[in-house]
Amino acid sequence: MVEPMDAAMASESARVRRPGWLRQALIVLEKDVRIELATGEVVVSAAFFAVLVVVLASLSFYGGPANARLVASGVIWLSVSFAAVLALGKTWQREREESALDGLLVTPLSRSAIFAGKALGVLAFLFAIELVVIPIAAVLFALDLGEVGPGLACIALAATPGVAASGTLFGSMTVRTQARDLLLAVVLFPLLTPTLLAAVAASRELLSGVPLGELGDYFRLLGIFDMVFVSGGLALFGTLIER
Q1: What is the model's pTM?
Q2: How confident is the model over 126-179, as pLDDT tens digits?
Q3: 3-class SS letters over 14-80
Q4: Domain boundaries, the chain
Q5: DSSP characters for 109-143?
């Protein structure tokens, strides 16, 4: 009688010690953030690439203050989208090295919590990139950040979660393929098109002088895309990540 009781108590103790879902997601997030703080390879390389896109675009398409406001919105989100693919590729490259992904999958963490933690990490990286890209674009395109900065920040807060969630989901799908970077871009950009178009349109209207309060339709559209990508990722990640 003693051994079954000890086994039951050990099982109950293990169940009690297992962290909750939110804590599981935060563990994965903390892992990615710690690695990034130690190396800086994702944010630095992706931010440098995004800034390069902004600089080249400003030299190529700048046609004066009137044209700058029309071009800047597309340049900002074009650079962010390219940087997102680069950041996702490097993020999942870490998991491929030395079977780190397999080690993560055998831990007592739920698949949805792993997805949430990875997506939050990508989201943090993209926000860091946008904090670099938007001020530089404002300087190069002669934008008044005091006037349009809060609005651009709101648009970024609404659009970036969908980019992070969809990128994390389909980055996991391509992690074990040979042409993973090419496949990620081919799969991801069509899915991001609605989010990017809404973000570009909202940014264009904002830079053209439309008050932020009149952009509610764009924010609702971005919110719908965010919910679809996040819920889809939570539901499908476990299936896509298995061998």
Answers
A1: 0.86
A2: 999 999 999 999 998 888 888 999 999 999 999 999 999 998 888 877 766 655
A3: HHHHCCCHHHHHHHHHHHHHHHHHHHCHHHHHHHHHHHHHHHHHHHHHCCCHHHHHHHHHHHHHHHH
A4: 20-241
A5: --HHHHHHHHHHHHHHHHHHHHHHHHHHHHHHTT-
